[in-house]
Amino acid sequence: MARNADRRNSLMDAGIRVLAEAGARGLTHRAVDVAAGVPTGTTSNYFAGRDDLIAALVERIEERLTPDSDAVDSPPERPRDRHLVEEFVRDVARRLTGEPHVALALFELRLEATRRPTVAATLSEWRQRAFEADVRFHAAQGLPGGRTEIALLHHAIDGLMLDRLTIPLDTGVSTEEAVAALVDRILRTADV
Amino acid sequence: MARNADRRNSLMDAGIRVLAEAGARGLTHRAVDVAAGVPTGTTSNYFAGRDDLIAALVERIEERLTPDSDAVDSPPERPRDRHLVEEFVRDVARRLTGEPHVALALFELRLEATRRPTVAATLSEWRQRAFEADVRFHAAQGLPGGRTEIALLHHAIDGLMLDRLTIPLDTGVSTEEAVAALVDRILRTADV
């Protein structure tokens, strides 16, 4: 059982690499078999159709991009200000740039969603859930930023990551500086 | 000659649709022939290899996304403040959401750039040129926002467009409101 779960995860990680390296169109059961170095047919045994495979990949990407609970714990005496938000966002950006193929696979799927309603449904459900969780987290922790600010931040960091993971502009602004400036400016009016 | 230019443009517009609808991997000379409704081999006559085809598509996307000079003209008595920048950015956002397949084709190419150095070189050259032109335009017109603010704005609007053109989050913030808020917050500290 544990062995099956490991095998399943390693197939999904191979699928993430295929997505990032060959694009959504390159994602086939056979390509995942090859990338995972397993006998032909293995991926089909785990995920019958392409939609099953993609649903599993979305789940695995979510798992790999969700921060450990440690990363969002902070001492109670720490002020709940935008500097703390900046730390959280910097952690997200570090995770995305540290595993570029996971983030690139997700961008591929977002584009694939415009072509395949099942991909759109799966991804949309997760993205909305993650967004609502973020809004609730800010409210529960007393962090600055309501629904609007969190929406703006999600968009801005998405665009920054797309730039950094594909063909970065030479702007003279480092990723860390850009994260800090975006959090600071977007949250400034919402700060306590 | 003019006829050839028209034919060339209609092939490139078909190529843009193929990119948006089938992804970068779906972009073949044959697929462009089919999308353009021309005899097999026509696209190959105009663009010998895949790199030539992609370079032409980048050029055509640039042409279709560049604002008319009217759109960036404004009466000299109009204050050069962030409200004017907001109008320009709103115009860009309107053009991108109004021609979703052009914007989606560009996102496809940005991901393809991670896999193909020739695509990276072509796209990178254009994006950097457009960025520098934007920085110069702000300086020449006395508009708020230097290099840093323009970089942050590019990233933020990119992320917003990716959201709106793929699977939009339900944030309660309209595209127009998001553009206004991003321009306002990113430029506020830079305003005169």
User: How many β-strands of chain A, per DSSP?
Assistant: 0
Low-confidence stretches of chain A: none
Q: If you consult CATH, what is the topology of the largest domain in chain A? A: Tetracycline Repressor, domain 2
Oligomer: homodimer
Estimate what percentage of residues of chain A fall within beta strands: under 5%
Shape of chain A: elongated
- The first-level CATH class of the largest domain in chain A is given as Mainly Alpha
- What is the residue-mean pLDDT of chain A, rounded to a whole number? 92
Structural class of chain A: mainly alpha
What can you see in these coordinates?
The longest helix of chain A has 25 residues, at 117-141. In chain A, 72% of the residues lie in helices and 0% in strands. The first copy, chain A, has helices at residues 2-22, 29-36, 42-46, 50-65, 82-98, 100-112, 117-141, 147-165, 175-188. With 192 residues, chain A is an all-alpha fold. The interface between A and B is large, with 52 and 52 residues.
What brief labels describe this structure?
192 residues, mainly alpha, Tetracycline Repressor, domain 2, elongated, 2 domains
Q: Would you spell out the secondary-structure blueprint of this structure?
A:
The structure is a homodimer of 192-residue chains.
Chain A: H1 2-22, H2 29-36, H3 42-46, H4 50-65, H5 82-98, H6 100-112, H7 117-141, H8 147-165, H9 175-188
Helix pairs in contact in A: 1-2, 1-4, 1-6, 4-6, 4-7, 5-8, 5-9, 7-8, 8-9
